[in-house]
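In response to the reviewer comment on reproducibility (Comment 2.3), we provide here a single inverse folding case reported in full, input and output, so that an independent group could reproduce the run without further information from us. The structure tokens appear first.
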């Protein structure tokens, strides 16, 4: 199966059509962006790391009964995915106060939340991806009421799987962002799950940030950091499936 023409060029990934109906290739790029594209860098190796980490997480989620667009890992930077119609919402789950929650509500970063919270952001670069509530999403017809309930439930289910998983990898899952897509058979988890889209803090030294904040806040070498995240994830994933999950993809 070969890839053909680019369908969409995003900030961190590109989508390509393939010769298989309904299957796309999601190519992870080495570009890092923050603050709605105002900060930009090319970091060789980042794309391959996020592809690998995201592939492992989608496979582990599937083992736990959470379906995603993930089909296969083609090579170091390409993931085969099911084509979906993306719901224009970013669904954020938070376990610990950080980032915009800290600034907006005046809470200290690092305070554990009493229970996980789910936030919605309207995927609109030109508006700066504003936070919206369920009623906004419904009135704007971004999703139906039933879909919104399902998005929230699925996001919390993902959290229930990923939080203990990252904890075994000695990382605190502070928060993360999900995207979902529609298929004829319902909603699927889509896009990526990686240190670009999750806040991960070292469990013994929470000041050690192991996610894209390293880039946003100039805290060190992002590729080295993601390499360490992958190393820790592999030690945990090996316990689930010593072969398929942990084998490194090659460029073919
Ligand atoms: N399975 C899929 N089918 C269609 N579109 C997808 C799928 N998975 C992710 N996408 C979309 O592809 C794009 C991925 O590239 P990315 O660099 O993250 O874009 P952006 O700069 O818009 O965030 C996103 O717009 C995402 O919503
Ligand atoms: Mg994106």
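Designed residues, in position order:
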């Amino acid at each position: 199966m070969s890839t053909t023409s680019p369908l969409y060029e995003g900030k961190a990934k590109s989508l390509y059509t393939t010769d298989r109906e309904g299957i796309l290739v999601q190519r992870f790029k080495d570009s890092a962006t923050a603050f709605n594209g105002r900060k930009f860098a090319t970091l060789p190796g980042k794309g391959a790391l996020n592809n690998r980490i995201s592939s492992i997480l989608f496979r582990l989620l599937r083992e736990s009964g959470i379906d995603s667009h993930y089909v296969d890992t083609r090579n170091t930077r390409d993931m085969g995915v099911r084509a979906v119609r993306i719901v224009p919402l970013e669904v954020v789950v938070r376990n610990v106060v950080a980032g915009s929650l800290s600034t907006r509500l005046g809470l200290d970063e690092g305070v554990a939340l009493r229970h996980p919270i789910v936030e919605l952001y309207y995927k609109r670069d030109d508006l700066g991806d504003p936070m919206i509530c369920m009623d906004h999403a419904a009135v704007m017809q971004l999703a139906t009421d039933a879909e919104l309930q399902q998005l929230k439930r699925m996001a919390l289910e993902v959290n229930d799987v990923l939080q203990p998983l990252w904890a075994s990898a000695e990382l605190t899952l502070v928060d993360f962002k999900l995207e979902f897509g529609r298929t004829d058979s319902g909603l699927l988890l889509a896009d990526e799950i990686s240190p670009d889209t999750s806040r991960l803090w070292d469990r013994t030294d929470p000041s050690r940030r192991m996610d894209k904040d390293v880039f946003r806040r100039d805290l060190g070498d992002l590729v080295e950091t993601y390499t360490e995240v992958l190393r820790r994830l592999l030690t945990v994933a090996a316990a689930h499936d010593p072969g398929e999950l942990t084998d490194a993809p090659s460029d073919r």
